[in-house]
TrEMBL record, chain A:
Family the entry assigns: Belongs to the ABC-4 integral membrane protein family.
Matching InterPro entries: ABC3_permease_C, MacB_PCD, Macrolide_Exporter_MacB
Annotated MacB-like periplasmic core domain residues: 21-258
UniProt key word Disulfide bond: no
Keywords: Cell membrane, Membrane, Transmembrane, Transmembrane helix
Pfam name, any one: MacB_PCD
Keyword Cell membrane: yes
Location in or out of the cell: Cell membrane
Organism: Cryobacterium breve
Domain ABC3 transporter permease C-terminal, first and last residues per copy: 302-425
Predominant cellular place of this UniProt entry's protein: membrane
Protein's recorded name: ABC transporter permease
Transmembrane segments: 21-42, 296-322, 343-376, 396-418
Topological relation to the membrane, as annotated: Multi-pass membrane protein
Automatic annotation (TrEMBL), chain B:
CDD domains according to UniProt: ABC_MJ0796_LolCDE_FtsE
SMART domains per the UniProt record, alphabetical: AAA (SM00382)
PROSITE patterns for this protein: ABC_TRANSPORTER_1, ABC_TRANSPORTER_2
InterPro entries reported in the protein's UniProt record: AAA+_ATPase, ABC_transporter-like_ATP-bd, ABC_transporter-like_CS, ABC_transpr_LolD-like, MacB-like_ATP-bd, P-loop_NTPase
Entry annotated with the keyword Ubl conjugation: no
Residues of the ABC transporter domain: 6-246
TM annotation in the entry: none
Entry GO MF terms: ATP binding
KW ATP-binding (keyword) present: yes
Alphabetically ordered keywords of this record: ATP-binding, Nucleotide-binding, Transport
The protein, known as: ABC transporter ATP-binding protein
Length: 432, 246
């Protein structure tokens, strides 16, 4: 029997006892449907985290701080140099959080580490207010746009890091308060940022609004300024500071080659820690969060797999009945010279086909249900999390589900198929 | 004398072991020539079906050997045995063993499908053999919708479709009334005459056995008698008996 006939016969045989096959397909359907939804939720949430992560920072960036020696448990000894005196870059009011300020010397030594492409101090600026024309002034946070970072944009473009003009992206929640009718109307308008230095002198800077950013999970309610604007704000803020104060920073941003091996990054981090610095990538910051999501999805998937295991026994049962019913037919085919291997193939293909029907149906209906749920939830429960698609589908994951179910069906089919293959034709053809 | 197409050489066949051991055949030897029709006659439990199964290579003898055209079949691989059964043998059973809900044509072409022959060729050969048995108009019908005689003709068509050189028939008329049984017998014997197909018929029906060239009587696992039918021309010369001892 050639392969085509084998498949055709298996498909035909599986449809011979329709009620039985439909019931088995339904039990697989339930498992595959559940698995589709749970893995869809996993994909959806992880995609959301990924976009959020991209808006927090670039994937080729390490944030470097100089941590106080903290080798021992218990109270940390006082270190007179541990306080970044009157530096505008010290973390806002952090008693007990001893952070040694990075100086230009530190930046130079970090820059000399093998694998570091560039090092930039992270400038922290806190404007007094933002305002459009003569409208209401609002308090606001301003973050610096790091090249490689991706903003989740509602309109417009990301601030251009290379541009020499002042450019800024405003969070979507500020669009209406600042007096714009919609997101698009904000683009191209001038935003005034006011900042005060230590001596109390307030200066104003004007930047072009180039984009409107969505509010992500990590609370991107901050305005995003490009490099020149950040530097200009910093200069305005540092008026009246001594050079050493101005040139001491809480953090530096190190860029590395993201295409390199994972090992390179590990080496880079250990080089940093040898010199007494702590390097943290965005991945590190968000990784534990993803691990929790993955864990929950894994548990959900496990439940779906349990359902599929039960369905597997359904396949065993269905095919055993089928083998029993077709004892004579199997005996006849063996008498006519069909080998045991082909008989095995015939029944296991039948199992695989049942698995395919159940999983394809489950995945198809699961996708429809997921899209339906997305449409309903986006306007109700999840309205506060724009950009979150709760159930997202990854073609590779869906194909994996179908293949896994087919594999499971094959395994379940081996028991009846072996029984059929080993059947003695004389016994099968005996009558009386 | 030519090499027999099938031969049994002192075959024993027993089932079970120890106290439950049952000897179905206790030393049977028989030669079957190409084109011959042989009836294996005996009561149920006599071992006649076992002998047919062994000759048809469906089972292996406990001792002794079955020779296929002079070659010991025990030396053949499973694949060759399967191929021989598929291409050289045709089977007609008392029960029809037709696949329900499948067309007559598909039932008839099952051996060709097993042999791996393509759909178009299968259809051509299946229709040719159905034509031969006056069943061409039933090709599209479901096999289960036919009468008993028609079903047995489908079974013969299925046995014939591979152009076998030997047809094994186990009680081919057992399930049929005498009129349709006669028709089926006529078909089988005309195949033997016209195509030179060897017929091996297992039966307990004396009338059917009498139509064969040779009758092998089997009882309690042993051949008790072997009779040759006398050709019609010589029958007249022997007034008292229609058969001679072998």
């Amino acid at each position: 029997m050639n392969a085509f006939d084998l498949i055709r016969s298996a498909v035909k045989n599986s449809l011979r006892s329709k009620t039985r096959t439909i019931l088995t397909v339904l039990s697989i359907f339930i498992g595959a449907f559940t698995l589709t939804l749970t893995s869809g939720v996993g994909t959806g949430i992880n995609q959301y985290i990924d976009t959020t992560v991209a808006s927090i920072g670039a994937d080729d960036v390490i944030t470097v701080t100089k941590a106080a020696e903290d080798g021992t448990d218990g109270p940390v000894e006082y270190d007179p140099t541990a306080v970044a005196v009157d530096s505008p870059n010290s973390p806002p009011g952090a008693p007990g959080f001893s952070l040694i300020a990075l100086t230009t010397d530190d930046l130079d030594s970090i820059g000399a580490i093998d694998g570091v492409l560039s090092v930039q101090p992270q400038l922290s600026v806190s404007p007094d207010y933002v305002q459009v024309a003569d409208g209401t002034a609002y308090e606001a946070n301003v973050g610096s746009f790091i090249p490689g970072m991706e903003l989740d944009l509602a309109a417009g473009a990301e601030p251009d890091a290379a541009s020499s003009d002042y450019e800024v992206a405003v969070p979507v929640s500020f669009v209406t308060p600042l007096g714009f009718t919609d997101d698009a109307a904000a683009l191209g308008a001038m935003l005034t940022l006011a900042i005060t230095d230590v001596t109390g002198t307030q200066s104003e800077l004007r930047a072009t609004i180039v984009g409107v950013s969505e509010e992500g999970l990590a609370g991107s309610t901050a305005f995003t300024a490009n490099k020149v604007l950040t530097e200009a704000l910093y200069d305005a803020q540092s008026g009246g500071l001594s050079e050493s104060s101005k040139d001491s920073y809480a953090q530096a941003v190190v860029r590395f080659d993201p295409t390199g091996a994972e090992a390179d990054l590990t080496t880079l981090k250990s080089d940093l820690s040898d010199l007494g610095y702590t390097g943290t990538t965005v991945e590190d910051q968000i990784g534990s969060f993803k691990a929790v999501i993955d864990g929950i999805v894994l548990v959900l998937n496990a439940f779906a797999v349990i359902a599929l295991l039960a369905a597997g026994f359904g396949i065993v049962n269905t095919l055993l009945m089928s083998v029993q019913e077709r004892t004579r037919e199997i005996g006849l085919m063996k008498a006519m010279g069909l080998g045991g291997g082909k008989i095995f193939g015939l029944f296991s293909l039948e199992a695989v086909f049942i698995g395919l029907m159940g999983s394809a149906l489950g995945v198809g209906v699961g996708m429809l249900a997921g899209m339906g749920a997305n449409a309903v939830l986006a306007d109700t429960l999840l309205a506060d999390l724009p950009g979150l698609t709760l159930v997202a589908f990854d073609p590779a994951a869906l194909a994996t589900i179908i293949l896994v179910v087919m594999g499971l069906a094959f395994l379940a089919g081996t028991i009846p198929a072996l029984r059929a293959a080993r059947q003695d034709p004389i016994e099968s053809l005996r009558y009386e | 004398m030519s090499i027999p197409v099938l031969a049994a050489r002192d075959i024993h066949k027993s089932y079970g072991r120890g106290a439950t051991r049952f000897d179905a055949l206790k030393g049977v030897s028989v030669d079957i020539q190409q084109g011959e029709s042989v009836a294996i006659v005996g009561k149920s439990g006599s071992g006649k079906s076992t002998l047919m199964h062994l000759l048809a290579l469906l089972d292996n003898p406990t001792t002794g050997s079955v020779e296929l055209s002079g070659r010991d079949a025990s030396g053949l691989s499973g694949r060759v045995v399967n191929q021989t059964r598929n291409e050289t043998f045709g089977f007609v059973f008392q029960q029809f063993f037709l696949t329900p809900n499948t067309s007559v044509l598909d039932n008839v072409t099952l051996p060709l499908q097993i042999a791996g022959i393509g759909g178009a060729e299968r259809k051509r050969r299946g229709m040719a053999v159905l034509e031969q048995l006056d069943l061409a108009d039933k090709a599209r019908n479901k096999a289960t919708d036919l009468s008993g005689g028609q079903k047995q003709r489908v079974v013969i068509a299925r046995a014939l479709v591979n152009n076998p050189s030997v047809i094994f028939a186990d009680e081919p008329t057992g399930n049929l009334d005498s009129a349709t049984g006669k028709v089926v017998e006529d078909i089988l014997f005309s195949l033997q005459e016209e195509k030179g197909i060897t017929l091996i018929i297992v039966t307990h029906d004396e009338d059917l056995a009498a139509r064969c060239d040779r009758r092998v009587y089997i009882r309690d696992g042993l051949i008790t008698d072997s009779l040759h039918a006398v050709p019609a021309a010589t029958a007249a010369t022997i007034a008292t008996a229609q058969e001679v001892r072998a």
